[in-house]
Amino acid sequence: MEFSSYFPIWNKLTAAQQQLLEKNAIYRNVEKGTIIHNGSVNCIGLLLVGSGQLRARILSDEGREITLYRLFERDMCLFSASCIMNSIQFEITIEAEKDTRLWVIPADLYKKLMAESATVANYTNEVMAARFSEVMWLMEQVLWKSFDKRLAGFLLNESELEDTRLLRITHEAIGNHMGNPREVVTRMLRYFQNEGIVRLSRGMIEITDVEKLKNLAE
Question: Domain 145-217 belongs to what architecture?
Protein backbone atom coordinates (compact mmCIF):
# COMPACT_ATOMS: atom_id res chain seq x y z
CA MET A 1 0.00 0.00 0.00
CA GLU A 2 1.39 3.36 -1.02
CA PHE A 3 0.57 6.35 1.18
CA SER A 4 0.40 8.59 -1.89
CA SER A 5 -2.50 6.56 -3.31
CA TYR A 6 -4.67 7.13 -0.24
CA PHE A 7 -3.98 10.72 0.83
CA PRO A 8 -6.86 12.64 -0.85
CA ILE A 9 -4.99 15.81 -1.85
CA TRP A 10 -1.61 14.24 -2.57
CA ASN A 11 -1.27 15.74 -6.05
CA LYS A 12 -1.87 19.24 -4.68
CA LEU A 13 1.10 19.10 -2.32
CA THR A 14 4.60 20.30 -3.11
CA ALA A 15 7.37 17.73 -3.57
CA ALA A 16 8.85 18.72 -0.20
CA GLN A 17 5.51 18.25 1.56
CA GLN A 18 5.01 14.88 -0.09
CA GLN A 19 8.46 13.75 0.99
CA LEU A 20 7.81 14.91 4.55
CA LEU A 21 4.56 12.95 4.77
CA GLU A 22 5.97 9.79 3.23
CA LYS A 23 8.94 9.86 5.58
CA ASN A 24 6.98 10.46 8.79
CA ALA A 25 3.61 8.76 8.35
CA ILE A 26 3.57 5.56 10.43
CA TYR A 27 1.95 2.50 8.84
CA ARG A 28 0.00 0.20 11.18
CA ASN A 29 -1.98 -3.04 10.97
CA VAL A 30 -4.72 -2.93 13.59
CA GLU A 31 -6.77 -5.94 14.67
CA LYS A 32 -10.53 -5.83 15.07
CA GLY A 33 -11.51 -4.61 18.54
CA THR A 34 -8.34 -2.56 19.10
CA ILE A 35 -8.82 0.83 20.78
CA ILE A 36 -6.62 3.11 18.69
CA HIS A 37 -7.38 6.33 20.50
CA ASN A 38 -9.36 7.42 23.52
CA GLY A 39 -9.87 10.81 25.02
CA SER A 40 -7.84 10.10 28.14
CA VAL A 41 -4.55 9.59 26.27
CA ASN A 42 -2.27 12.04 24.54
CA CYS A 43 -3.03 13.13 21.01
CA ILE A 44 -1.61 10.41 18.72
CA GLY A 45 -1.93 12.12 15.36
CA LEU A 46 -4.27 11.95 12.39
CA LEU A 47 -5.48 8.59 11.12
CA LEU A 48 -5.70 7.83 7.41
CA VAL A 49 -7.53 4.58 6.63
CA GLY A 50 -6.08 2.33 3.93
CA SER A 51 -8.54 -0.52 4.36
CA GLY A 52 -10.91 -1.82 7.00
CA GLN A 53 -13.34 0.07 9.20
CA LEU A 54 -13.07 2.31 12.26
CA ARG A 55 -15.76 3.50 14.65
CA ALA A 56 -15.76 6.83 16.50
CA ARG A 57 -17.83 6.84 19.68
CA ILE A 58 -18.40 8.80 22.85
CA LEU A 59 -19.14 7.52 26.34
CA SER A 60 -21.44 9.17 28.88
CA ASP A 61 -20.70 9.48 32.59
CA GLU A 62 -23.30 6.73 33.13
CA GLY A 63 -21.38 4.34 30.88
CA ARG A 64 -23.68 4.53 27.84
CA GLU A 65 -22.04 4.94 24.46
CA ILE A 66 -23.14 5.98 21.00
CA THR A 67 -21.50 5.80 17.57
CA LEU A 68 -20.81 9.22 16.09
CA TYR A 69 -19.56 8.07 12.69
CA ARG A 70 -17.53 5.40 10.93
CA LEU A 71 -14.40 5.65 8.83
CA PHE A 72 -13.63 3.65 5.70
CA GLU A 73 -10.95 3.50 2.99
CA ARG A 74 -9.29 6.91 2.35
CA ASP A 75 -11.17 8.53 5.23
CA MET A 76 -9.26 10.80 7.58
CA CYS A 77 -9.85 11.03 11.33
CA LEU A 78 -8.97 14.41 12.79
CA PHE A 79 -10.30 13.92 16.31
CA SER A 80 -7.42 11.60 17.19
CA ALA A 81 -5.26 14.72 16.82
CA SER A 82 -7.47 17.01 18.89
CA CYS A 83 -4.36 18.66 20.36
CA ILE A 84 -3.96 20.67 17.13
CA MET A 85 -7.60 21.84 17.21
CA ASN A 86 -8.24 23.97 20.26
CA SER A 87 -11.99 24.05 19.68
CA ILE A 88 -12.39 20.30 20.35
CA GLN A 89 -13.71 20.00 23.90
CA PHE A 90 -15.12 16.46 23.98
CA GLU A 91 -13.43 13.08 24.22
CA ILE A 92 -13.79 10.54 21.44
CA THR A 93 -12.77 6.89 21.33
CA ILE A 94 -11.63 5.39 18.02
CA GLU A 95 -11.99 1.60 17.72
CA ALA A 96 -11.26 -0.82 14.88
CA GLU A 97 -14.53 -2.51 13.88
CA LYS A 98 -12.66 -4.72 11.41
CA ASP A 99 -9.01 -5.59 10.83
CA THR A 100 -7.68 -2.29 9.52
CA ARG A 101 -4.59 -0.96 7.77
CA LEU A 102 -3.91 2.71 8.38
CA TRP A 103 -1.32 5.44 8.66
CA VAL A 104 -0.76 7.70 11.65
CA ILE A 105 0.32 11.21 10.64
CA PRO A 106 2.13 12.93 13.54
CA ALA A 107 0.12 15.86 14.87
CA ASP A 108 3.05 18.32 14.89
CA LEU A 109 3.85 17.53 11.26
CA TYR A 110 0.27 17.99 10.12
CA LYS A 111 -0.04 21.22 12.08
CA LYS A 112 3.05 22.51 10.24
CA LEU A 113 1.54 21.57 6.87
CA MET A 114 -1.72 23.33 7.75
CA ALA A 115 0.19 26.49 8.66
CA GLU A 116 2.16 26.63 5.40
CA SER A 117 -0.37 25.22 2.93
CA ALA A 118 -3.78 26.75 2.22
CA THR A 119 -4.67 23.54 0.37
CA VAL A 120 -4.08 21.38 3.46
CA ALA A 121 -5.87 23.89 5.71
CA ASN A 122 -8.91 24.01 3.39
CA TYR A 123 -9.05 20.24 3.11
CA THR A 124 -8.86 19.91 6.89
CA ASN A 125 -11.74 22.36 7.29
CA GLU A 126 -13.79 20.37 4.77
CA VAL A 127 -13.20 17.13 6.66
CA MET A 128 -14.05 18.80 9.96
CA ALA A 129 -17.26 20.25 8.52
CA ALA A 130 -18.26 16.85 7.13
CA ARG A 131 -17.70 15.16 10.49
CA PHE A 132 -19.71 17.79 12.36
CA SER A 133 -22.49 17.41 9.79
CA GLU A 134 -22.58 13.69 10.56
CA VAL A 135 -22.74 14.41 14.29
CA MET A 136 -25.53 16.98 13.81
CA TRP A 137 -27.45 14.48 11.67
CA LEU A 138 -27.09 11.93 14.47
CA MET A 139 -28.38 14.43 17.04
CA GLU A 140 -31.43 15.14 14.87
CA GLN A 141 -32.10 11.40 14.60
CA VAL A 142 -31.85 10.89 18.36
CA LEU A 143 -33.93 13.94 19.24
CA TRP A 144 -36.68 13.83 16.65
CA LYS A 145 -36.94 10.34 15.16
CA SER A 146 -38.74 7.46 16.88
CA PHE A 147 -36.60 4.51 17.95
CA ASP A 148 -38.30 2.02 15.63
CA LYS A 149 -37.38 4.16 12.61
CA ARG A 150 -33.82 4.64 13.85
CA LEU A 151 -33.39 0.91 14.45
CA ALA A 152 -34.80 0.06 11.02
CA GLY A 153 -32.34 2.49 9.43
CA PHE A 154 -29.46 1.02 11.44
CA LEU A 155 -30.26 -2.54 10.33
CA LEU A 156 -30.51 -1.48 6.70
CA ASN A 157 -27.18 0.33 6.93
CA GLU A 158 -25.50 -2.68 8.55
CA SER A 159 -26.92 -4.96 5.86
CA GLU A 160 -25.51 -2.69 3.15
CA LEU A 161 -22.09 -2.43 4.82
CA GLU A 162 -21.76 -6.20 5.29
CA ASP A 163 -23.51 -7.05 2.00
CA THR A 164 -25.76 -9.61 3.69
CA ARG A 165 -29.19 -9.89 5.29
CA LEU A 166 -27.77 -12.10 8.05
CA LEU A 167 -26.21 -9.77 10.61
CA ARG A 168 -23.87 -11.20 13.20
CA ILE A 169 -24.43 -8.61 15.88
CA THR A 170 -25.71 -8.69 19.45
CA HIS A 171 -28.50 -6.58 20.91
CA GLU A 172 -25.95 -5.05 23.27
CA ALA A 173 -23.71 -4.02 20.36
CA ILE A 174 -26.66 -2.37 18.62
CA GLY A 175 -27.49 -0.52 21.83
CA ASN A 176 -23.89 0.69 22.04
CA HIS A 177 -24.06 2.01 18.50
CA MET A 178 -27.37 3.77 19.02
CA GLY A 179 -27.02 4.99 22.59
CA ASN A 180 -29.88 2.88 23.95
CA PRO A 181 -30.04 0.17 26.63
CA ARG A 182 -29.94 -3.42 25.43
CA GLU A 183 -33.40 -4.09 26.84
CA VAL A 184 -34.92 -1.37 24.63
CA VAL A 185 -33.24 -2.85 21.55
CA THR A 186 -34.45 -6.35 22.43
CA ARG A 187 -38.07 -5.25 22.85
CA MET A 188 -38.10 -3.46 19.50
CA LEU A 189 -36.40 -6.36 17.69
CA ARG A 190 -39.01 -8.73 19.09
CA TYR A 191 -41.70 -6.42 17.75
CA PHE A 192 -39.95 -6.48 14.34
CA GLN A 193 -39.91 -10.29 14.53
CA ASN A 194 -43.62 -10.45 15.35
CA GLU A 195 -44.25 -8.26 12.29
CA GLY A 196 -42.28 -10.64 10.09
CA ILE A 197 -39.51 -8.11 9.41
CA VAL A 198 -36.61 -9.98 11.03
CA ARG A 199 -35.80 -13.41 12.47
CA LEU A 200 -33.81 -13.51 15.69
CA SER A 201 -31.32 -16.11 16.88
CA ARG A 202 -28.40 -16.06 19.29
CA GLY A 203 -25.93 -13.37 18.20
CA MET A 204 -27.63 -12.98 14.81
CA ILE A 205 -30.44 -11.04 13.16
CA GLU A 206 -31.77 -12.06 9.77
CA ILE A 207 -33.67 -9.45 7.77
CA THR A 208 -36.62 -11.31 6.25
CA ASP A 209 -38.58 -8.42 4.73
CA VAL A 210 -36.38 -5.63 3.37
CA GLU A 211 -39.30 -3.62 1.94
CA LYS A 212 -41.12 -3.49 5.27
CA LEU A 213 -37.89 -2.40 6.93
CA LYS A 214 -37.34 0.32 4.34
CA ASN A 215 -40.91 1.58 4.71
CA LEU A 216 -40.49 1.71 8.47
CA ALA A 217 -37.17 3.56 8.21
CA GLU A 218 -38.71 6.17 5.93
Answer: Orthogonal Bundle (1.10)
